[in-house]
Amino acid sequence: EQLPGQLPGQWSTTSRQEPKVVFKYLEWEALDVLKEFLPCQVLEQKFPNVLVPAKRKKKVLYISHRVLNEWDPDPDNKSWHYLKERRSSLSKLFDGFFYDFSCMYQYLIKDHEGQRKHAVLTTEQRDARNEQLDQLSTFIKKCYVMVVDPYDVWKDRFWILWECLNAAKNRKLVVNDYVIPLLEKTGPNPNFVTVQKILLNAGAKDGTNKYKLLSQLETLYLEGAQCYLIPVDHFLSCENWDSVHPVPLSLHHIDQSKVLMISHRWETKKHPDPENTKLRIIQSFLDPDHQARDLNAKTPTTFQYIFFDWECVDQTPHKIESALVRVNELYANSPCLCLCDSKGDYFRRSWCLFEICINTFNKGTPIVLPKNTHHPILHWLKCARLVQQFGYVHVLEDMYQANGTTQLDLPEDQLHLKSQLRNLILSSTLTNQGDLRIILNLLDKLVPVPDE
């Protein structure tokens, strides 16, 4: 016998959108009305007023818990009493709570002895269930999360750990005795490598769903303040680019002055350094004696990480733009090593010009190799930097002309500087013309001078 209730009652549809789950939560008064957690469809039939549709401005407490058995997650009502004992304090902070067994449709049947058991799902029911779980992972991000597990069986379970780490990243984890051991293991600001290790060792029934949720969490941890960088000690031990392995790091928790950004022109469309020539130049710059040095010895360099776009930016077209927004903040805040070439092609490339410009106007003078490189744009940038700082250029005209750089107009004042930078970029060359919009938008954002 199937329990009463129909799944479509929890769905709202429009003619142009996919079905969207309308999640509901329990108000605190439900703790007075009920004596235990009941399945959603039983609750809707017997106590239809205790479930309330979740609204944007309501603060909902999501209860993360281990399911002891599939047809009754709280057989001794310990979790129910745990919440009831803390109702007074929790109700002051939250409008209600979400307990999945009572707030989501359960595919349960009654056997001949009247016991609840999970039903065998049809393909349509399984698809609806998966859609519900997919949207639940989005709903959780809007809630505060609290672990309730008087049975002490949650610590190695993937879904609960995922919920906790997701909430911790969003600053919405309610800290109680249950989660303190986890937070001691991860630290207050764990990176994704730590999180991934914990979750991969956790148990989960559905391996496919596990990796899907792990991918969602990776997006959360790597968005905004995250990027990939190459540890210097590791880089110095590499013989080619194939052996280089960058690691994900938070920009908020590293010293950006210890990151060396590499600005360079790609040698070919498919690979920027097929002969590993630039790799060896960077290694020699970081440590001239690295080839003769014991690999276990401490590297005598002031840098902890390097950034090389080929290794540190996902080159997939639909991912590259969001990654570049984060990366180019590093070009503005970290030392930059510019690898020029004897033909001067570096100064004709749009990305190269953009990188050296934002580094100059935010950080100062970039490091240029070879050291004897002389190019009109280098002197123009030096003078433009003074214009940016002091707002006028009258005393610089003689010095500027004496260096033979009259083919580039010197900016008259701060107001005209950004427009001249844009013209400089527009006169350069790009392999992918679609990048021009990205470069100009970033230029407006990252060059700190008044706009026109």
What do these coordinates show?
This protein is 41% helix and 12% strand. The protein has 19 helices and 15 strands. It has helices spanning 30-33, 40-46, 78-85, 87-93, 100-103, 123-140, 158-169, 180-186, 192-200, 207-222, 232-236, 277-286, 309-312, 317-333, 350-362, 376-390, 397-402, 414-426, 435-446; strands at residues 11-12, 20-21, 24-27, 51-53, 60-64, 96-98, 108-110, 116-118, 144-147, 226-231, 247-250, 259-264, 305-307, 336-339, 367-369. α15 (350-362) links the parallel β14 and β15 (367-369). The chain starts with 10 loop residues before the first strand and ends in a 6-residue tail after the last helix.
Radius of gyration: 29 Å
Percentage beta strand: 5-15%
Task: Give the tally of β-strands.
Answer: 15
Largest sheet: 6 strands, mixed
Structural class comes to alpha/beta
> Which stretches are poorly predicted, pLDDT < 50 over at least 5 residues?
1-19, 292-300, 402-406
Strand order in the sheet with the most strands: 11-10-13-12-14-15
- Shape category: elongated
Share of residues in helices: 40-55%
Whole-number mean pLDDT = 76
- Our count of helices gives 19
Give the termini separation: 73 Å
